[in-house]
Amino acid sequence: xxxxxxxxxxxxxxxxxxxxxxxxxxxxxxxxxxxxxxxxxxxxxxxxxxxxxxxxxxxxxxxxxxxxxxxxxxxxxxxxxxxxxxxxxxxxxxxxxxxxxxxxxxxxxxxxxxxxxxxxxxxxxxxxxxxxxxxxxxxxxxxxxxxxxxxxxxxxxxxxxxxxxxxxxxxxxxxxxxxxxxxxxxxxxxxxxxxxxxxxxxxxxxxxxxxxxxxxxxxxxxxxxxxxxxxxxxxxxxxxxxxxxxxxxxxxxxxxxxxxxxxxxxxxxxxxxxxxxxxxxxxxxxxxxxxxxxxxxxxxxxxxxxxxxxxxxxxxxxxxxxxxxxxxxxxxxxxxxxxxxxxxxxxxxxxxxxxxxxxxxxxxxxxxxxxxxxxxxxxxxxxxxxxxxxxxxxxxxxxxxxxxxxxxxxxxxxxxxxxxxxxxxxxxxxxxxxxxxxxxxxxxxxxxxxxxxxxxxxxxxxxxxxxxxxxxxxxxxxxxxxxxxxxxxxxxxxxxxxxxxxxxxxxxxxxxxxxxxxxxxxxxxxxxxxxxxxxxxxxxxxxxxxxxxxxxxxxxxxxxxxxxxxxxxxxxxxxxxxxxxxxxxxxxxxxxxxxxxxxxxxxxxxxxxxxxxxxxxxxxxxxxxxxxxxxxxxxxxxxxxxxxxxxxxxxxxxxxxxxxxxxxxxxxxxxxxxxxxxxxxxxxxxxxxxxxxxxxxxxxxxxxxxxxxxxxxxxxxxxxxxxxxxxxxxxxxxxxxxxxxxxxxxxxxxxxxxxxxxxxxxxxxxxxxxxxxxxxxxxxxxxxxxxxxxxxxxxxxxxxxxxxxxxxxxxxxxxxxxxxxxxxxxxxxxxxxxxxxxxxxxxxxxxxxxxxxxxxxxxxxxxxxxxxxxxxxxxxxxxxxxxxxxxxxxxxxxxxxxxxxxxxxxxxxxxxxxxxxxxxxxxxxxxxxxxxxxxxxxxxxxxxxxxxxxxxxxxxxxxxxxxxxxxxxxxxxxxxxxxxxxxxxxxxxxxxxxxxxxxxxxxxxxxxxxxxxxxxxxxxxxxxxxxxxxxxxxxxxxxxxxxxxxxxxxxxxxxxxxxxxxxxxxxxxxxxxxxxxxxxxxxxxxxxxxxxxxxxxxxxxxxxxxxxxxxxxxxxxxxxxxxxxxxxxxxxxxxxxxxxxxxxxxxxxxxxxxxxx
Length: 1157
Hints:
glycoprotein, mainly beta, endosome, disordered N terminus, cytoplasmic vesicle, Sortilin_C
């Protein structure tokens, strides 16, 4: 079964399928679809173009054409089209077939019986379970699946106790109205059956402990999507629910307990005895956030935070955890590039070392048996092919085995790689490789060390010579194997029949989907024979001593073919009197398989017909020792494969005898002397055209001694390593095996400094773990000093003392230069890492003036909370500009060339967080403004939020308009942030009246100001905030109120002295800034702890000079003055609630500061 990273497949177990059906090892559980059951879909079996097709089931005694693959589990008995999900053809049995049947001559017949599942004619799916060896019980669940509703609407449960000759309907035992959706079987005790009801009707389990004879119903509080049985404990089950929760049961489903929430689908695994500390341990992947997951282990009945383990330090990529045999794999993406980690025998995780410039886009773990990993890697320059890599026993160092292996998309959207491991022959694989846009089939006998093309048969099915010369012409095979354990592929082999491979393929320069024939080899791929020129499913009987062929066709059939001599001769047998549309075939569990059930139907609307075939009558007797012969495994005459000579025993082609259930494959082996062919290139080495392994251009052989310690020894590679599981001895083993040498004394070289997360960022206040690696040098005698860049440093006596990493907590945001220095008596080496320590950005506020002067600079400021979050990028969208302004500073200056309302948006990017704020600015060429105050009761209802200020501003504006008669378009009002509540109104000139002239505008604004101030001074402006709360609006007249600090920390004299210093400093700044007289300028600022921009007021109209052009102040001058004041007072930590009034008049600077307690 293919295991893959980050793709939607089922690496957890071979028991799961797309329809949630499950079975255990050795179990015979199939999901069969009746032909034609799904409207609008063609047959799932792709009928390829043929050179010749017979109508019905007629023909000579030479069978024609298959397209068949083996069972995923060689120990599961016989599989066939039964496992395929196929749709019924609308074809009918033709009149020609009827005439042929009428004139049928005497023919060979098989002992068979037929049983019809009466009342299930509408049912279009069936799940079948044969209990196992020495059991005659077969369970069959038939269902009517509505593809429009995507649910089961009817079901029936049938049980046979006589190998399928008769069946009993059990609907009354499980509940007449109960709708069953799935059938599960314990892999460790086939007598234990579990039925799952349709959750749309009720969510329940029906459990049987007597092979389905009786059932008990148990209610469920969740909806089961998939189950995973324990490989050894028959009552232990894991259940995955629709809401990503994982449940466990130790009572075969009678009681359930929640294990964990937010579990990734198909990413949970049982512990493995001998590797994990306890049998009840569960490996699972839990989702943390989008793009982040954790690898967690916990106890079956006690998965609390205290009992959880985290074998991998840090986050992993979602859907990347794979636990297979003694290996665990995870994936972590850094900088857009995936890094794959492996743990062997539950040891620490280590990055998988592929050749340096492999740069994988995708990686699949194909195999983990025989203590090594086979991985399929799609490299950066590949799109439809993968390269095969093989590892040593630790699964860390990988070398190339075969390039450009063909891949295809599976039915679940998972990637299928055209690599097939032949059952019964250790180290033998078949693969389809793409070369010059041609797909060719290659074979290896030594786990990918050497590959060669397949020699085509010398004669075709009719005995004609085939002219096919290597390498221009060869035999090419279809190697598709199904990801669903209940379906078949194109190729079959069995452990009980070593050397026999049946497959479909073609002869020529490349693999094609036309002119497909069926081929067989009896000598493990050395020679091949063509057995059919049309598509047939070929099945194994009698431990491989006989073969059964059933034609793949949408037409009804009544014959099958039998061969007793490894496919050299075939005899046609009838298995039923009436032709049958065949939907599937189920064989007796085990390797013997002498009883078979064919599932089919007579017509489109008929019920299921179950035909039981008993092959025992066609065998004469039990096999004796004289019926067997020996067979020597070889590769084109070379007997030494994987370091040994292997001799197998198999039945003679002329012996028609039953091997029996006790038969086991017998093999004798003898050791071979080691030759160069027993060794593959070591990591970092590449095989040249002359067959020699030499270092790759990027590889430094001395780097393999990086963990070496003076006084110790290390294995110095010769460029070769023995193929895993190769058992050769003597010969050239000394020449090619890595040599143990004394560790050299050398200065530290190749010092690496990284964080455990592999990132360059850290969160303020959390532990940061630094890892230090030394490629070369005496680690035991090399001291390591780590300077964290914040004034702290640590020194360790040797590298080995910091294997678990060095932890440090940063207390301030910033960019730190972290330096690691390794030093011994021969020299030193340093490594530098720049670490960005950040904290979460929670809130931003855009401080901007409410009104700005046309064509005058305006300062915009983004205020952050917290103020220090690390490296920040500001993106400004100003007015109608289509391109943003990007800065690293929180302030930007801009001008507006047109009057009107302009929108300013700032986005702040800090780490993975982006926040934004937006403000509108009214731009005018001339305006007059004045500060407003309110009766004290307004402060009691001021929540100091932007929305409240906006609403109250609108109320004040309406009150001013009602009291004075000023037009709405000539008045703007804004509430200032902070307490006490203050506001500012802005008067705009009537452009038609003033004709845009400065003198007229100033005079007009003076008149409007007098009207509004008169109304304010007479207390004519009032509004009702809420029933019983009336607020009066005043014109603010600031006086030199005594500056008193009511706190205990400051005296009044100290405060007055401090403010005097502030006033002098501000006076110098204003004089330097303006460098000219600005008559009639009044500017105020309200100091507070707010992050919002305070509003700034130009001159009061009563104090202005006749020169109106100089009266109209710029927002730049106002904002600069206010910002300097605010920064100065904040740095001096003066009390926040201050009003400061500047007045530059007749060349003098007057300052009034009022302190509001």
